[in-house]
Amino acid sequence: MNFKPQLPNWGYNLAENKLDLLIEYHKWLKDTGIKTGLISPKSDQFIWDEFIVHSLYFSLIFQDLDVQNKQIYDLGTGGGIPGVPLAITSKNIINLVDIKESRINELIRLKNILKLENIEPTLQDANNTIVNEGYFVSRCYISSQNALNLLKKRKNTTYIVSATEKELDYDKNVFHVKHLNFYINKEDLRHIDVITVK
Q1: What does the pLDDT look like over 143-184, one tens digit per residue?
Q2: What is the CATH number of domain 9-197?
Q3: Domain ranges in the chain?
């Protein structure tokens, strides 16, 4: 069965003219990402749906929030997920934060391969990064509930994080949380929480 990268309806306007770069990143994940242990062995379709398309929804959220030319921190980025697709499809500066030097070294090589000027691989403990105000994303580094605990004393902070189907129970005096549901393909529903500190 041949792999053919497809975009869901919500992704066409966002990524259609960036498809070549997204496919190149997909190839890098499939080859270098697996070989160096950045991701575990997965099928072409899984890598495309779960790592590329899922990450694109983060970019769609920032577009809807009208966040442009800002610093965004991808915490515990690993192989650049969701930060690299976010960088490919936006003009924001994406700081790919990870504590492992070997991962950062691979992401520096990837930056050169893709010629992406708006990514900054950053060797740092993600827990120390979130002390700043700003925009943060993570796909699986932290849960929505743990994000609430880390953010409760922050101001001017938005954290966008992959979520479970269940909506959060949270202090509405401190946070605003938007729970979003979207399909990464015709069958698979995914969830993201957009957490804003009031």
Answers
A1: 888 888 888 878 889 999 999 988 888 999 999 999 999 999
A2: 3.40.50.150
A3: 9-197
